[in-house]
Specification:
alpha/beta, 7-stranded mixed sheet, elongated, about 280 residues, 14 strands, single chain
C-alpha cells in the first residue's frame, strides 16, 4: 500500500491505520486541489500514523500546494481520530456538516459548517469546483464532495471497495441511505474515492449494486416472518433466518443491520411492532 498515492492530477490518497471495521484496516485521506488544497478525512488516532500523516500534509507545500482546510465526511471514530490534533498542528480550520459538528461537540470544534449544494472552488492551474452533497443514511451529517469537472466523487462511507458499510439503527437510516445511493448514481461520476479501499472505476454500477443488495436483504427479512409465530418475533429470532447466509461470527453486526431494516419497514407500514418490542408483518404485506 503506497503512501502517498497519486490518484490523478490534483488528487493524492494517504491511507492511514485506523480502528475501523474489518476486513478494512485503513481509512483513506485525500488531498484535493493543485494549489489550494482541502485535506479530507483526518482519520488516524495512532501516534506513528499521525506523524506520517503530518509529514505528508506538510510536504505538499514543497510542491506548490497549500492546505486551506480539513474536511470531515462524518463523525465516526475511524474518520475523525486525528481531527483536532491535525487542525492544531497545521493551524487549519475544520469543515463539516452541522449534524457532524453537533455530534462532536465537546470533543472537536468544527470551525465552519458546509451545507448541501454549496460549492467549494479550489484555486489552481485547473481550479477544482467541489459540490457538497449531504448524504445522510450511514451517519446524519455524512457528506460527499463531487468534482463537477472531472466527475470525481469523494464518497466517505457511502460505499467501499474494501469491507462493508454498516447501517445501524441509531446513527443510521436505511430509507435515507438508499435514497442517497440513488442520488449518487444519478451524478454520472467517472470515479469514486472511498474512505476504505481502492478507487472505484465504475461508481454508478456499484451504487446501483448496493441498492440491489440492500433490497435483496430486505426481502429476506420479510420472508423470515413466514417461519415466525403470527403474534410476532424478536430480533434474535429473526436474525439466524434473515441472515442464514452470513457467518455467525458476523451476527453482532448483522443484528444492527437487521434492526435498521426493520425500522425502515415499520416506517413504511409493512411491519408492525408490538408493545413487547417484537415484530410482525402488517396485514396485506
Amino acid at each position: 500500500m503506497g503512501r502517498p498515492w497519486r490518484v490523478m492530477l490534483g488528487v493524492e490518497r494517504f491511507p492511514a491505520l485506523t480502528p475501523t471495521l474489518p476486513p478494512a484496516t485503513h481509512t483513506n485521506s485525500y488531498a484535493l486541489g493543485e494549489r489550494e488544497v482541502l485535506l479530507v478525512e483526518p482519520a488516524t488516532p495512532f501516534d506513528d500514523e499521525r506523524r506520517a500523516w503530518l509529514a505528508w500534509a506538510r510536504s505538499l507545500v514543497s510542491h506548490g500546494r497549500h492546505p486551506i482546510g480539513i474536511v470531515l465526511t462524518h463523525h465516526h471514530a475511524d474518520h475523525v481520530g486525528g481531527a483536532w490534533f491535525f487542525a492544531n498542528e497545521l493551524r487549519l480550520p475544520l469543515l463539516a456538516h452541522r449534524e457532524t459538528a453537533a455530534r462532536l461537540a465537546g470533543e472537536v470544534r468544527v470551525d465552519r459548517h458546509i451545507e448541501d449544494g454549496e460549492r467549494l472552488v479550489l484555486d489552481g492551474p485547473h481550479p477544482m469546483p467541489l459540490r457538497v452533497l449531504h448524504t445522510p443514511g450511514h451517519a446524519p451529517g455524512h457528506i460527499c464532495l463531487f468534482d463537477e469537472d472531472t466527475g470525481t466523487a469523494i464518497v466517505g462511507d457511502m460505499v467501499a471497495s474494501e469491507g462493508t458499510i454498516l447501517i445501524e439503527p441509531v446513527d443510521g437510516d436505511m430509507i435515507e441511505y438508499l435514497a442517497q445511493l440513488d442520488r449518487l448514481a444519478g451524478l454520472g461520476a467517472h470515479v469514486a474515492l472511498p474512505a476504505h479501499g481502492e478507487p472505484i472505476d465504475e461508481p454508478t454500477t456499484l451504487f446501483r449494486r448496493y441498492i440491489t443488495h440492500r433490497l435483496a436483504r430486505e426481502a429476506k427479512v420479510v420472508a423470515a416472518f413466514a417461519s415466525m409465530p403470527p403474534a410476532g418475533a424478536s430480533l434474535d429470532a429473526l436474525l439466524p433466518v434473515a441472515y442464514a447466509d452470513t457467518p455467525p461470527l458476523l451476527w453482532p453486526l448483522a443484528r444492527m443491520s437487521l434492526e435498521a431494516h426493520l425500522v425502515k419497514l415499520v416506517r413504511e407500514g409493512r411491519v408492525l411492532r408490538t408493545a413487547s418490542g417484537d415484530y410482525h408483518l402488517a396485514p396485506g404485506s
